[in-house]
């Protein structure tokens, strides 16, 4: 039977689990004892259900994040892969709302960091370019061997969906409640996308030319295919996510500009991406749960490869 814990989450309890969270919370003055308790509690528990509302987590999170850096270490020492979760376009409210969803990564004993990338408001939104910025800044801080690009309005519903990288790039969020827990179409690659840095460089990252929520997710799927790599996906029972009301999903949006970009991708993808990225880092703020980056992406890289001019003429015609 599912049992509700103090974070308004429902976990499938282990039959040998004897200690209750309420009892452990009475030992707040003994931080070491509580962390030892959490090392047992935060094991893989399978499917759980989030209530998706803001909670009063102050007393619970205080012991977890006190004096902690944005670089999250496993609560127990085990030999595990390193992993970076790169999350984009996140507000402070959503940081609080998604705090409970950080528990699966803790139970999986991962060494990870969360990067939030925000652009200044003088330009149109460009998610692909922000993801390229997040990748570059994260790799400058540590030699990560796995990177997750994670829409922050998605909360994982099953911690058996392991946040590590496979031998191929992976589309992790294969079952979202908005789409009745199935893929909207076979080529859909939105939500949560994971790959190794060497694979990210092989596909030249995300395109920098998609503004105002267009087709960057389908573009990255095409890049994986053109680079000669396969795409892996977890089982539908494990890759389940709940989409919050915040944020927008424009996966079905159509435009002439979008169709034009699709037509030119074979000529453009090697020159439009991480190797042509230009931006200015305005600030880097380190918080207990994440690192916040503010950037100006309306900045050209003078050393970027020159792409086929046809695509720019196409854009100028609309």
Descriptive report:
There is one protein chain. With 318 residues, the protein is of the alpha/beta class. It has one domain (70-316): Alpha-Beta Complex (Spore Coat Polysaccharide Biosynthesis Protein SpsA, Chain A). The chain contains 10 helices and 14 strands. The strands form 3 sheets. Strands 4, 5, 6, 7, 9, 11, 13 and 14 form an 8-stranded mixed β-sheet that branches. A 3-stranded antiparallel β-sheet has the order 1-2-3, with no helix packed on it. Helix 9 packs antiparallel against helix 10. It is globular, with a radius of gyration of 20 Å. Pathway: Protein modification; protein glycosylation. Its cofactor is Mn(2+). It is a single-pass type II membrane protein. Residues 171-245 form the Galactosyltransferase C-terminal domain.
Looking at this protein, list some descriptive labels.
318 residues, alpha/beta, Spore Coat Polysaccharide Biosynthesis Protein SpsA, Chain A, eight-stranded mixed β-sheet, three-stranded antiparallel β-sheet, 10 helices, 14 strands, 28% helix, 18% strand, disordered N terminus, disordered C terminus
């Amino acid at each position: 039977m599912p049992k509700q814990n103090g974070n308004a989450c429902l976990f499938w309890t282990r039959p040998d689990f004897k200690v209750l969270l309420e009892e452990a919370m009475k030992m707040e003055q003994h931080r070491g004892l509580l962390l030892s308790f959490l090392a047992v509690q935060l094991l893989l528990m399978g499917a759980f259900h989030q209530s998706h509302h803001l909670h009063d987590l102050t007393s619970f999170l205080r012991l977890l994040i006190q004096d902690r850096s944005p670089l999250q270490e496993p609560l127990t020492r085990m030999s595990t892969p390193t992993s970076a979760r790169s999350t984009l376009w996140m507000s402070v409210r959503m940081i609080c709302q998604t705090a409970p969803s950080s528990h699966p990564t803790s139970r999986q004993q991962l060494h990870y960091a969360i990067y939030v990338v925000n652009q200044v408001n003088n330009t149109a939104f460009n998610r692909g370019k922000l993801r390229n910025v997040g990748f570059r800044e994260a790799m400058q801080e540590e030699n990560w061997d796995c990177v997750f690009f994670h829409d922050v309005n998605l909360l994982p519903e099953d911690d058996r969906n392991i946040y590590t990288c496979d031998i191929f790039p992976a589309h992790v969020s294969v079952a979202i409640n908005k789409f009745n827990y199935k893929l909207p179409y076979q080529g859909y690659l939105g939500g949560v996308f994971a790959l190794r840095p060497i694979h990210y460089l092989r596909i030249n990252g995300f395109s920098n030319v998609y503004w105002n929520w267009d087709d960057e997710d389908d573009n990255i799927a095409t890049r994986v295919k053109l680079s000669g790599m396969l795409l892996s996906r977890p089982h539908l029972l494990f890759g389940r996510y709940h989409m919050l009301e915040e944020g927008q999903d424009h996966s079905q949006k159509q435009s002439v500009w979008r169709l034009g970009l699709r037509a030119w991708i074979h000529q453009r993808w090697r020159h439009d991406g991480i190797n042509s990225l230009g931006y200015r880092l305005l600030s880097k703020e380190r918080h207990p749960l994440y690192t916040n980056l503010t950037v100006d992406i309306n900045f050209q890289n003078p050393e970027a490869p020159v792409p086929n001019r046809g695509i720019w003429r196409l854009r100028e015609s609309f």
